[in-house]
Design goal:
The chain is built from 4 helices and no strands. With 115 residues, it is mostly helical. The N and C termini lie far apart (31 Å). 18% of the residues are buried. The model has no long low-confidence stretch (mean pLDDT 91).
């Protein structure tokens, strides 16, 4: 498959990862021709990527946070809380729009894939 994003150079260290994530349906671009590799992602986007990378499993008994509408694109991905990958930022908030740090992302990955 050809890389559709003009902002992902074939020499970029993340080229193969972006192509894989695109082909596997884990992510899309920020437009039909851009990926925006330097953009910061938020908690909703981070758990959505993990959820899709895990095959978008069926979700029952969603964790309820007052800031996660049941119709939000990331509502099923909050499955990450029930699987110990992350927690809410409080007992009733997930903070889907809060930016993720590199440390948080590596922790999410560690918890999701440590076996």
């Amino acid at each position: 498959s050809r890389m559709p994003f003009t902002d992902v150079s074939p020499s970029a260290y993340y080229y193969d990862a972006v192509l894989w994530a695109l082909e596997e349906g884990i992510t899309t671009g920020t437009s039909s021709t851009t990926f925006s590799p330097d953009a910061v992602i938020d908690r909703a986007q981070a758990v959505t990527l993990l959820y899709r990378a895990n095959g978008a499993p069926s979700v029952t008994g969603r964790t309820v946070f007052t800031d996660v509408p049941q119709t939000a694109y990331y509502a099923d991905a909050v499955w990450a809380v029930d699987h110990g990958i992350t927690t809410g930022t409080s007992a009733t908030a997930f903070s889907p729009n809060a930016s993720c740090t590199r440390a948080q992302i590596v922790t999410f990955l560690y918890r999701a894939y440590r076996g």
